[in-house]
Amino acid sequence: MLNRILWWSIVQRWLVVLGAIALTIFGIFQLRQMPLDVLPEFAPPQVEIQTEAPGLAPEEVESLITLPIESVVNGTAGVETVRSASSLGLSVVKVVFSWQTNIYQARQLITERLQEVRDRLPPNASPQISPITSLIATILMYALAPKVPTAPDATSLMELRQLVDQKVVNRLLAVPGVSQVIAYGGDVPQYQVLVDPDRLAAQQVSLQDVVAGVSGANENAAGGVIVTPDQELIVRGIGRATSVADLAVALVAHRNGQPIRVQDVATVTKGPALARGDGSVNGQRAIILNIDFYIQEGEDHIPVGTATVTADIETPTGDRVTLPMTYTPRDKHYTARLANPVAGDYRIVLLSTINGQPINSRFRFRYEPNQGGKQE
Which helix (H) or strand (E) holds 272? Predict the structure, then answer.
């Protein structure tokens, strides 16, 4: 049989040559149309449920939150595996579906099941479904830090964190393909009311009175509208606190016809929130940004990486500032290739960039509120 095939191929050699050419052209065409990706999905669809419960121990989180959620999602159509982890004040349940399940349908099914269990959870626990991310998730990691933290005019980590939360995160979330930006480290700013027990006792005021007074001083009230022949005027009471001084003069109670304000029993200041962790780069405190992404089937990760690297922000004064990054020579070469890809090697470039290289890079800039953004 093999001899006959070889004899026929030699006799009909021009037909064999034409067939080989046709197959080569068809293969090249298919190769150009083939969806390629350096980071293909290698696991089935997954839905992650996170529930915060401040103050609960891991045992209580497991019994009061994790087990009820596991029980209600176990019977969902297409579910293959349910994994969970309970820690201090946090429950994480990961639901793994079969390969054929559409991720959006899976999230819809889990959302419907969570509606059934909300009434059985503690009052301060509200389960949330994490954004859709690739199973590889993190595409880039950035570390933001002041260039000279010991300088007198250096930007504090509290100001830097506020700028990150208000500007940088929103700008990165606007990049198509970026599903989540997680920032940690630095000092999260908050208004703090430091109550003095001696002054409380002297004024005969309880801690609950202070809490109620501060909460009531941070609300706006609606008053309807006043109708005139040509317009409607909105009536409202502006009571939301916008500064330390606003909270300090909030009314707590009355004693002998005299008002007792927050400043009479406590010290109001703006300070960092209590931190359970921190971020650093090269031994220096910094704010770390984890950028997670999700790409639709048939799309590529290259544009997401390029747009993320070249993303810029606007300072409150309106000046546009591009956050510069400093690289090692190898990282700089890879990122330059990423921003200006060359056919044949740009896929390897992004893979090398994603696999941890940018963690050695960091944004460096100074932010001056009165002068806008100053690039370093």
Answer: strand 266-272
Domains and CATH numbers, the chain: 46-129 (3.30.70.1430), 138-188+278-375 (3.30.70.1320), 190-272 (3.30.2090.10)
Give residue-wise pLDDT tens across range 198-253. Answer: 998 888 888 988 988 888 888 888 888 999 888 999 998 887 888 888 888 888 88
Residue 376 to residue 367: CA distance in whole angstroms? 10
The rounded radius of gyration (Å) of the Cα atoms in the chain is: 29
**Residue for token digits 């109708």?**
227
Q: Are 12 and 50 in contact (CB under 8 A)?
A: no
Distance CA 164, CA 120 (A): 37
Tokens 């479904």 correspond to 129
Give pTM, 2 decimals. Answer: 0.63
Instruction: Tell me how far apart the alpha carbons of residues 248 and 246 are, in angstroms, rounded to a whole number.
Output: 6
- How does pLDDT run across 3-28, given as a tens digit for each residue? 888 888 888 888 889 999 999 999 99
Q: Measuring CA to CA, which residue among 279, 245, 24 is closest to residue 141?
A: 279
More confident residue, 141 or 161: 161
How far is 78 from 254, CA to CA, in rounded Å? 61
Element (H, E) at 20: helix 13-33
- Assess contact for 119 and 73: CB atoms under 8 A: no
Which band of pLDDT confidence, cut at 50, 70 and 90, is reported for residue 47? very high
